[in-house]
Request: fold
Amino acid sequence: MVTKHEQIIQHIISLSVGHKISVRQIAKELGVSDGTAYRAIKEAENQGLVSTIERVGTIRIERKKKENFERLTFAEVVNIIDGQVLGGRAGLHKTLNKFVIGAMQLDAMMRYTEADSLLIVGNRIKAHELALNEGAAVLITGGFDTEDHIKRLADEKQLPIISTSYDTFTVAAMINRAIYDQLIKKEIVFVGDIFTPYDESFYLHTKDTVKRWYELNNQSTHTRFPVVDDKTRVIGMVTSKDIVSKEDDVLIEKLMSRNPQVVQTKTSLASVAHMMVWEGIEVVPVVDQAYRLQGVISRQDVLKALQQIQRQPQVGETIDDIVSRNLIETNDDETVYESKVTPQMTNQLGTLSNGVFTSLLTEASSRLLLHYKKGDLVVENLTIYFIKPVQIDSNLTIKPKLLEAGRMYAKIDVEVHSERKLVGKGLIMAQLIDR
Reply:
């Protein structure tokens, strides 16, 4: 049965983007208390379904997809450039697709200005009007104002017109920087972002037989399936070990393991990956608070997500990207690596930073395990000894050595040399995920 809280969330999802929402309105329309409506609206805000904008109110917004998080809303632009909204506040929730710098003739400017873009321009009233009529927002640089009929047009079109004291070049640099910062930000990935939903999942009912397990095994190639009761609550798991040598007509409820490990949509990717490695689990059921099956998450789902977030889609580079690019295998021995200390890898004193040193050890260890075809590395414990500071432009030799390796774990010793002198050591305890 759907709770009042879930009912309100579904109602909010059904509203069109830009629709205003209030506690009293929701409470009246759905026949719930103000408190229930308030809590549900706050939850919708946490889920990215609504946004509260100053002097506008709570607005239904389009939830940002992770693959499009390089885009900004106009409200975010206002905060970035310390802007003042002159008109069109009702459109602050909208997302801009690109920005255009208006340093050209009007005809040429309008060829590049399109709907959902942002025109950055100075005190050119005609350009403000043409941009708004094309469906674009306007950012006026140099601290200039605009005419009242332009502000009324912005309100009518629900497109923000913003003023900032910064010059055009500075504003463009600030917006670019904000986009870049979002691109290199490693967002936390949750089970809800990557799991296979209920209607696409494979599962068994308590009254199914062993024969049905074999049917699902052929369809999915999985060997582990959740078992649900008549209310779709997860009450057990069945694996290949449970059904081996059993007759086809034996009921699943007689063979299943009860009280299985489950996760929820808000469980982090790191947590579920650790569980799968540590317990040797291939598939984990995803449930809601009432233990109803929402879907499943498989080892393949987790590996795919881990591989996607290892390399960010940005044009610029993170420190990990710089470390990986600079780490080169030597010709004479594939388990020895070399790297040069670049300016980005140093601290304010011009020596190799501790964080980069740690990344070098981890990256070298990861490559060593891949060389031995042991799988991907998940660091469990890391002990590092900084013996001597390493200057900028120094050449490093990194020597990882595999001390122990089992099916599920590995222990690696790493030595770092500069000019044939030992400058640091590390001991890494890691779990392994098969590729």
Q: What stands out?
A: Confidence is low (pLDDT under 50) at residues 65-70, 311-316. The chain has 15 helices and 23 strands.
